[in-house]
């Protein structure tokens, strides 16, 4: 199942990703239209969809990516994980963490899958990420049960203004990664059962057509289940909560010399079995 958000309303996406239909309409008003309400009733939505006859050709609209929002546009909580790919830890010159490094990206940075990225400074960097959306409340969840609390997965970018992020004496990770538009996600949420191998998903990023990141979630230091288990051991995770799971090697700030985004650059982020994001960099006015 694929679920998205358009103009503040939850939508279903056809299996071939060519059409969307308003979920409230398709379900006769049973679910939605608010995406948060959909995640709050996620188990019921999944059961309904398993037997629903959704007529996309008759009642759906063509997919317009520019009309879509982040799949969970107003989560109660947002978690972001640093240093969570082995290859990224190596390029950063650090040692593997013993526990997840956690910060947040504020919801004001959320954006849909395509659009302009306003450069907030001269050191804006890219970070392709797999994003998890929670579908069932989780507290003290065991690793082996963690996938059952995941509604689905989507594509994300953790854009970062490195100067702000690393300003001392204490780094400002959350602030430097939360300028408007710095958390695009989408184009839709894909349930884990749709993926050939949910633990080894290819992830890539290009800038102006040049591949800058190419890896797999098999490189994760802390897997999706491990993250859900760890976070839920500290606090309750709620339906619709969002987890940015970290980025692989290839970020601009780790290059010699560093490479940061400039006006006119086109950043495309792709995760196998889910879809792609596309942002065009523009200068702030």
UniProtKB/TrEMBL annotation:
Top-level taxon of the source organism: Bacteria
Q: Which UniProt keywords apply?
A: Hydrolase, Metal-binding
- Tell me where in this chain the Fumarylacetoacetase-like C-terminal domain is found: 78-279
User: Mind telling me which SUPFAM superfamilies this protein's record contains?
Assistant: FAH (SSF56529)
The alphabetized list of GO BP terms reads: small molecule metabolic process
- A Pfam family annotated for this chain is FAA_hydrolase
InterPro entries noted in UniProt? FAH, Fumarylacetoacetase-like_C, Fumarylacetoacetase_C_sf
Please list the GO terms describing molecular function. hydrolase activity; metal ion binding
- Provide the family line: Belongs to the FAH family.
Q: What is this protein called?
A: Fumarylacetoacetate hydrolase family protein
């Amino acid at each position: 199942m694929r679920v998205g958000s358009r103009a503040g309303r939850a939508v279903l996406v056809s299996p071939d990703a060519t059409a969307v239909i308003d979920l409230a309409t398709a379900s006769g008003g049973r679910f939605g239209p608010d995406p948060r309400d959909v995640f709050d009733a996620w188990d019921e939505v999944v059961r309904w969809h398993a037997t629903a006859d959704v007529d996309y050709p008759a009642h759906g609209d063509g997919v317009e990516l520019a009309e879509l929002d982040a799949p969970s546009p107003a989560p109660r909580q947002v978690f972001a994980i640093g240093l969570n790919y082995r290859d990224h830890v190596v390029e950063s010159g650090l040692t593997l963490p013993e526990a997840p490094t956690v910060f947040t990206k504020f919801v004001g940075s959320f954006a849909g899958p395509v659009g302009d990225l306003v450069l907030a400074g001269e050191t804006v960097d890219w970070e392709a990420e797999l994003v998890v959306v929670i579908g069932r409340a989780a507290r003290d969840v065991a690793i082996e049960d963690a996938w059952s609390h995941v509604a689905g997965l989507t594509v994300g970018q953790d854009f970062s203004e490195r100067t702000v992020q690393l300003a001392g004496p204490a780094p400002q990770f959350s602030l430097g990664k939360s300028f408007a538009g710095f958390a695009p996600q989408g184009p839709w949420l894909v349930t884990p059962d749709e993926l050939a191998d949910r633990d080894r998903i290819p992830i890539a990023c290009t800038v102006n057509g040049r591949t800058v990141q190419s890896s797999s979630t098999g490189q994760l230091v802390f897997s999706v289940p491990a993250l859900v288990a760890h976070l839920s051991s500290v606090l309750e995770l709620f339906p619709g909560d969002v987890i940015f799971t970290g980025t692989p090697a290839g970020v601009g700030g780790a290059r010699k010399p560093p490479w940061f985004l400039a006006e006119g650059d086109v950043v495309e982020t792709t995760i196998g079995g889910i879809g792609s994001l596309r942002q065009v960099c523009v200068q702030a006015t």
